[in-house]
Write a structure and sequence with these properties.
binds calcium ion; 37% helix; single chain; Inosine-uridine Nucleoside N-ribohydrolase, Chain A; 8-stranded mixed β-sheet; 15 helices; 353 residues; two-stranded antiparallel ribbon; globular; 16% strand; alpha/beta
Length: 353
């Protein structure tokens, strides 16, 4: 079954109730079973969970990563770009990295050092990367990649949507060139930056609303699902014991976010961005529902909220988006550990960290 066929199937079964069954784990299957590699664009604000998402992307054989763009978010643009390059160096990846927007479309910049540390990597210091950022701005590079892929490009966006908003403003035909968009952001329920708003949407609500309103189907991997995609302190230690440089880095950079999450009474550290990447790779361990989605941009207590009709009358039009509501955490954890194990057992670890 192709990804497109499986995608349709998810939409068909989206109204199901009760627990969902997975009869096989695609990550256990060697190779791609004849499927072409999906071209992917990754937009991020690295960021501790963005960093883990980059580690997973590198190991997902079903993806062909066309480019990575950076945006201001968890920390300032200079740091998100530097962190992205440093993590790419840690992986040994040479996928080009493009610098994006340094601030939201019309709002003042908001960052999240309480979660990601002052440097954005939880205080972990990676060496200065030899990799250089590309000269082309992110929005132009994204558009060129979308044209080159002829309608097959999947955009995964796990930071504020500013780069996407700028690309949509500049290139009218971009929506028809994107196959689909998977974002980490928002939530049909509550928020994390405010009671109503999730961080990525709160930072640039106008840009997010442009995306939801541009005509492209958007899958919203929001807090409804990603708060269930967590690792406990013990599980994070287990991950580090895999021994590779990359696994130890993952364990260490998540420690400050873990401490913050535990202080709020949560069971572990939510891996928001990795969950969105794994959804894009294989949605069989997730539950998703069609919905109408827009963003509240006018101010007041609900500023930055992603408003959906998922829990109301389901009568808004168009209902082209998907809200991901659930994840099988055990299988999520198994896939995460399996992908991370591909970095080896430490004997081949890089001297970079
Ligand atoms: Ca992020």
């Amino acid at each position: 079954m192709t990804m497109a066929e499986r995608w349709k199937e998810v939409r068909k079964i989206a109204g199901r109730q009760g627990p969902f069954a997975v009869d096989r784990d695609l990550f256990q299957i060697d190779g791609l079973a004849g499927e072409a590699r999906q071209p992917i664009w990754f937009d991020c604000d690295t960021g501790v969970d963005d960093a883990i998402a980059l580690l997973l992307l590198h190991q997902l054989d079903r993806f062909q990563l066309a480019g990575i763009s950076t945006v201001a978010g968890n920390v300032a643009l200079e740091k998100t770009t530097r962190n992205t390059l440093a993590v790419q160096a840690l992986i040994g990846s040479e996928v080009p990295v493009y610098r994006g927007a340094a601030c939201p479309l019309i709002r003042d910049q908001v960052t999240a050092p309480e979660v990601h540390g002052l440097n954005g990597l939880g205080g972990v210091e990676l060496p200065e990367p030899a990799l250089q950022v590309e000269a082309l701005p992110a929005w132009d590079a994204l558009y060129q990649a979308a044209r080159k892929q002829g309608g097959e490009l999947t955009l995964i966006a796990v930071g504020p949507m500013t780069n996407i908003g700028l690309a949509l403003a500049k290139y009218k035909d971009l929506p028809e060139l994107l196959k689909r968009v998977v974002i980490m952001g928002g939530g049909a329920g509550g928020g994390n930056t405010t009671p109503a708003a999730e961080f990525n949407i709160f930072v640039d609500p106008e840009a997010a609303d442009m995306l939801f309103n541009c005509g492209v189907p958007v899958t919203m991997c929001g807090l409804d699902m990603t708060m269930k995609a967590y690792l406990t302190a013990e599980e994070l230690d287990d991950l580090g014991r895999q021994g590779s440089t990359q696994a130890r880095f993952a364990r260490d950079c998540l420690q400050s976010a873990l401490a913050y999450s535990l202080s709020l009474g949560q069971p572990g550290v939510a891996l928001h961005d990795p969950a969105a990447v794994l959804f894009a790779a294989d949605d069989s361990i997730f539950e998703a529902h069609p919905a109408w989605i827009r963003v509240e941009t006018k101010g007041g207590p609900t500023y930055g909220k992603t408003v959906t009709d998922l829990y109301s009358d389901r009568k808004m039009e168009p209902r082209r988006h998907l809200v991901v509501t659930d994840i099988d955490r055990d299988r999520f954890k198994a896939r995460l550990f399996d992908l991370m194990r591909r970095y080896g057992d430490g004997n081949r670890g890089s001297a970079l960290y």
